[in-house]
Amino acid sequence: MRATTLFNNVLDLDGITVADVTVGTDQVNVAVRLCRRRLLCPEPDCGFSTRWRADTRPADSSWRSLDMGSRKVIVTARLRRLDCPDHGVLVEQVPFARHRARFTRDFEDLVAWCASKTDKTAVCRLLRIAWLTVGAIVERVVADGLDPHRLDGLVSIGVDEISWKKRHNYLTVVVDHATGDVIWTGPGKDAAALDAFFAELGPQRSAGLTAISMDMGKAYPKSARKDGHAPQAEICWDPFHVVAMGAKAMDTVRRVHWNQLRATTDPHTARRFKGARWALLKNPADLSDRQTDALAAIKRTGSAVWRAYRGKEALRAIFAGDLDPQEVTGLLDRWCGWAQRSRLEAFVKLGRTIREHRHGILAAIRLGLSNGRVEGRNAGIRLIARRAWGFHSAEAAAAMIMLTHGPITLDLPYEK
Ligand SMILES: [Zn+2]
């Protein structure tokens, strides 16, 4: 079979003919020609086409395609320019690559699929591209494949902040509780960040919201309650944030105790206690044997740290998801009573915070925003946000989250 015929089949290029194939040591060059008469505007969703060229200057373009063995495949074409009434003078669209891409659609889909499945080092080594390039590709693939109706018919949503880089770079992430999909992401974590979501949602769709769950902060509710946003929606406080606050309170007690130990006893005891930190923070079911021993030793002392540990675990059990709303209400009130009497400053404070937010916490339970499900999804999003560290922009990090947790169909080139 002639190489050109082979590539006509392999590349599956509709309306394209392969003019020439050159096989080098590291690279295969495939020169193609567009057979269609009309020039199409390359901007997504434009649809403008014309028979007239804007000028006669040729626009030589090239794209990297799927590798052939160890050789990179480079597709080249001599394209024409058109004058779109909306977008100006642009190089015509090609069916096998996205606008402004230096890679074919197939190659980009493969990159996005890999980036959603595995880590930075593996993706860069396997596909021989820089991580920054992966960020740009993910942005294009997501813009292309995201469900355009993802903001329709929303009833109950969750809002959360995710850090995507060291040094306080945050994204606001909105989840549809009905599907579990991330439906919107935007830079920042303040009221303005959520304002941008409501601006995109519009007043009509915002009016359909009945519940919004979030972390106990002031910024998001401020945006949600504005006119034209969703003042009618019930604000719910995510139970898993409450559980996280319990762990934080316990850690405060532990730190205070450790500082006292360090000042009054021998360094060996203090050091041993410091090592018990993870035993205290982990769920009992996940402890190693050594950590279980460390925990037993703390229990024997009956110290403030042990009481704090019990308090943290009790709070976790209340929101574990296996109790009905009535049981949760009773236990939470009892827990707040205990916290008030605990003589542990951090827990007295936490008890007060929980009492102040009681209505919204119980609303989340009543609406079935189960702790385990929300927390699991949140952990997944955080993991992906970490993978996006090193991307050039918040937009690329946001696209990475949409790629893995959004309503998007992502196929491999040979699955289409
Ligand atoms: Zn156009």
Bound molecules: zinc ion
- Which band does the percent of strand residues land in? 15-25%
What is the arithmetic mean of pLDDT? 88
Structural class of the secondary elements?
alpha/beta
What's the main sheet like? 5 strands, mixed
Describe this structure in words.
This protein is an alpha/beta fold. Helices cover 48% and strands 19% of the residues. The chain has a five-stranded mixed β-sheet, sandwiched between helices. Strand 5 and strand 6 form a beta hairpin. Helix 11 (304-318) runs antiparallel to helix 12 (325-341). The protein is elongated. The mean pLDDT is 88. It binds zinc ion. The site of zinc ion has 7 residues, from loops. Zinc ion binds at residues 41, 43, 46, 48, 84, 86-87.
Reconstruct the topology from this structure:
Elements: H1 3-11, E1 16-23, E2 27-34, E3 39-40, E4 49-50, E5 59-68, E6 71-79, E7 81-84, E8 88-91, H2 105-117, H3 120-127, H4 131-145, E9 156-165, E10 169-176, E11 182-187, H5 191-206, E12 211-214, H6 219-224, E13 234-237, H7 239-264, H8 267-274, H9 277-281, H10 289-301, H11 304-318, H12 325-341, H13 345-356, H14 358-366, H15 371-387, H16 394-405
Parallel strand pairs: 2-6, 9-12, 12-13
Antiparallel strand pairs: 1-2, 3-4, 5-6, 7-8, 9-10, 10-11
Bound molecules: zinc ion.
What is the compact description of this entry?
This protein has 16 helices and 13 strands. The protein is an alpha/beta fold.
